[in-house]
Amino acid sequence: MKAVIFDLDGVITDTAEYHFLAWKHIADQIHIPFDRSFNESLKGISREKSLETILVHGGAAAKYSKAEKQALMFQKNQHYQTLISKLTPKDLLPGISRLLCELKNENIKIALASSSRNAPKILERLEIIDDFHAVVDPTALAKGKPEPDIFLTAALLLGVSPAECAAIEDAEAGIAAIKSAGMFAVGVGHERSMHAADLMVGQTCDLSLDLLNEKWKQHSF
Ligand code: BG6
Ligand code: MG
């Protein structure tokens, strides 16, 4: 294992909850039912795709013009940015700071593969941006998760092959993207959405370099 590639929202910090709150506010406003179970299907996917999914779910796919959709996305992002403006290093999920230290001590490369355009700002607020050797720009990709592009780009930027990478995700679309990139997939969260992962942990505090190495060896040989 030469590199570990991280998803951000729901893996490094709990901003998955902020995305939920900001979309819920929009959905309530346009009278579309929105609960946590439906929100699972939005995890890992782009802002545009998320809005489309919400509108289809509410039977309102054709109801809004392009400009109205832009306005809804802008409003969602404004709300989301207000929520993330309060982030501090204390908002790192348990075990993440320790895992980053363990990786750095072993000279394992670290990259970020987040679909979020807000990712660099969040890494800065969490004061971990300097730990990352590469941060993929999601706007430069042809296809988002569950396609493998974002993870393949991370490997390319790090100068390692996909088979030398492990990647950590909390979303079904993310695990599918990792597997289709030919990498070792680590899922954080509930078993149901993580079934395709090579290693599953319930929470981020269960992650460690020792555990990754142990499962990596069993997987490879
Ligand atoms: C992903 C989140 O990381 O980023 C999605 O899991 C979100 O919920 C996507 O929609 C895009 O984020 P942003 O910040 O660019 O709207
Ligand atoms: Mg995520």
TrEMBL record:
Co-factor binding comment? Binds 2 magnesium ions per subunit.
Record flagged with keyword Metal-binding: yes
Matching Pfam families: Hydrolase
Q: Where is this site: Important for catalytic activity and assists the phosphoryl transfer reaction to Asp8 by balancing charge and orienting the reacting groups?
A: S114, K145
Q: Return the Gene3D superfamilies for the record.
A: HAD superfamily/HAD-like, Putative phosphatase, domain 2
Cofactor needs: Mg(2+)
Q: Where does Mg(2+) bind?
A: D7, D9, E169, D170
Q: What is this protein called?
A: Beta-phosphoglucomutase
Organism, scientific name: Bacillus nakamurai
